[in-house]
Design goal:
The chain is an alpha+beta fold and 516 residues long. It is built from ten helices and five strands. It has two domains: 118 residues, Outer membrane efflux proteins (OEP); 268 residues, Outer membrane efflux proteins (OEP). Strands 1, 2, 3, 4 and 5 form a five-stranded antiparallel sheet that branches.
């Protein structure tokens, strides 16, 4: 066995380039030219794996609900981004802007997009060689009793310095597209994450609108019930006066008191529901629930006319569909990555630097050293691992196709639900307004007949309950129409368009060569 000093001596002997600076420049030029040629060959190589095509889905030509819902322009009616402004509620607009700025789910989704972009940058770095420098300074003593190896100095104790600045250059020749498919997959993931961010924004803003309108609808119900309480209090006073005059019985008093107490209880329950929606809004706008309060006022939102377009528009306007489609593209690219493992992995490498035992000679021409080489790695036998990886990638792609088609079907269902819901609720609202007017007349007649002694007070109470029920139902229908409108806007994508994703990808740039 030869000693370490002998091995160092041999390495220096084999790798040292004893030449002038002109000769060193010539070697570097030839090395650069070699890597340039190999890079061009790598980029012009074939990328194995299937070419991506979006999976087909059955798209109906029109919605089943008749006009006017389908009559509007498909993409120009909803405000791009700020879709909630169609409801004409300035307070809702303020809460929506606060949600976009402070909602924690949106902030987390933004960071996921940043992570996906950085992962794509990591994959794009595979297009370029990596250059590693590892300068070192060492002082060592070699034993005099070390094993003697031929062509080495006599065995004696040696104390020496080693100063070196080595460089290592590595490059994968992407002849079969492994790097390109990984970049394709990572960019698809980046775009899918960006679409998911838009979906998180749409979900958060639509949930806020739904909670806000639910709160306002409950406030309107509270107003209706509170009017009933005021009416019942006057009714109780009337019945007590008639009882004291001997006209009404104690049974009438007890019945009216029961109705009053029940109405007061309903007010408390509705206020508790309002508080829950207020707390939900607080979370969505990123505020602590104890410190967040929504002022009470009348519901001022208007029912908007929502442009729908045709079913094919939904494929480009729904961010969750875009996320599913980009996931499908990513899985398709991963099939190519798995197939590239069946081909050799060609690595180009080069080394160079300076080495000397005397720091003063470190930059002499004789201290320069270099090496060039290439290697190819091919799995000869892997126990079926490569085939299993390929089957795994293909199964992942087929699963993403099914998820994409299911997302599209769900989108069609949600739009149809919104359209049919608005149509039905519009008819129900018109009928309910008539019911409220009829109940009001019923109560007026019952009161007149009771004062005239023609009926018992039970008839008046029944009329009161009928009016209260119909008024509350009319308010609930209004709230449901607002919620259904929000759901329909959400089902249509909130004015978003998938065309914005096309520019979101990381491309290899010249500056990437000098970035670590």
């Amino acid at each position: 066995m030869r000693g370490r000093g002998a091995l160092i001596h041999d390495k220096q002997y084999l790798l040292r380039l004893s030449c002038s600076h002109r000769g060193t420049d010539l070697i570097l030029q030839r090395t650069s030219f070699l890597f340039l040629i190999l890079s061009v060959l790598a980029l012009s190589g074939c990328a194995v794996g299937p070419k991506y095509q979006r999976a087909s889905v059955v798209t109906p030509p029109t919605w089943s609900i008749e006009a006017p819902w389908r009559a509007a322009a498909p993409k120009d009616g909803l405000p791009k981004g700020d879709w909630w402004t169609i409801f004409g509620d300035p307070e809702l607009d303020a809460y929506e802007k606060q949600t976009l700025n402070a909602n924690q789910s949106i902030i987390a989704a933004v960071q996921r997009v940043e992570q996906a972009r950085d992962l794509a940058r990591i994959q794009v770095a595979g297009y370029f060689p990596s250059l590693i420098a590892q300068p070192s300074a060492e002082r060592e003593r070699l034993s005099a009793s070390r094993p003697v190896v031929a062509s080495t100095a006599p065995s004696r104790a040696i104390t020496q310095n080693i100063f070196q600045i080595p460089f290592q250059l590595n490059y994968e020749a992407d002849l079969f597209g492994r790097v390109r498919r990984n970049v394709e997959a990572s960019n698809a993931q980046y775009q899918g994450t960006a679409a998911d961010l838009e979906n998180v924004r749409l979900v958060a803003t639509s949930e806020l609108a739904a909670d806000y309108f639910s709160l306002r609808e409950i406030e309107a119900e509270i107003g209706v019930v509170q009017q009933a309480v005021d009416y019942d209090q006057k009714g109780l006073q009337l019945v007590e006066n008639r009882h004291q005059g001997g006209i009404a019985s104690g049974l009438d008093v007890s019945q009216q008191a029961t109705v009053l107490d029940a109405a007061v209880a309903q007010v408390h329950l509705l206020r508790q529901q309002r508080a829950q929606f207020e707390h939900a809004v607080a979370v969505l706008v990123g505020a602590p629930a104890p410190n967040f309060h929504i002022p009470t006022h009348e519901l001022v939102a208007k029912l908007p006319a929502i442009p729908v377009g045709v079913p094919a528009d939904v494929l480009e306007r729904r961010p969750d569909i875009a996320t599913a489609e980009r996931t499908m593209a990513q899985q398709n690219a991963l099939i190519g990555v798995a197939q590239s493992a069946f081909y050799p992995d060609v690595q180009l490498f080069g080394g160079g630097g300076i080495q000397a035992g005397d720091i003063g000679k470190l930059f002499n021409a004789s201290s320069f050293l270099w090496s060039l080489g290439t290697s190819a790695t091919q799995t000869v036998f892997g126990g079926g691992r490569l085939h299993a990886q390929l089957d795994f990638a293909k199964a992942g792609y087929q699963g993403s196709v099914a998820e994409y088609r299911n997302t599209v079907l769900t989108a069609f269902q949600q739009v149809e639900d919104g359209l049919s819901g608005l149509t039905t609720l519009a008819d129900a609202a018109a009928a309910q307004q008539k019911a409220v007017a009829d109940a009001q007349r019923y109560l007026t007649i019952a009161n007149d007949r009771y004062v005239g002694g023609l009926v018992t007070y039970l008839d008046v109470i029944t009329a009161e309950q009928t009016l209260l029920t119909n008024q509350r139902l009319a308010t609930q229908i209004l709230g449901q129409r607002l919620l259904t409108s929000v759901a329909l806007v959400k089902a249509l994508g909130g004015g978003w368009d998938a065309a914005t994703l096309h520019d979101l990808q990381v491309r290899p740039e010249l500056k990437s060569v000098v970035q670590q």
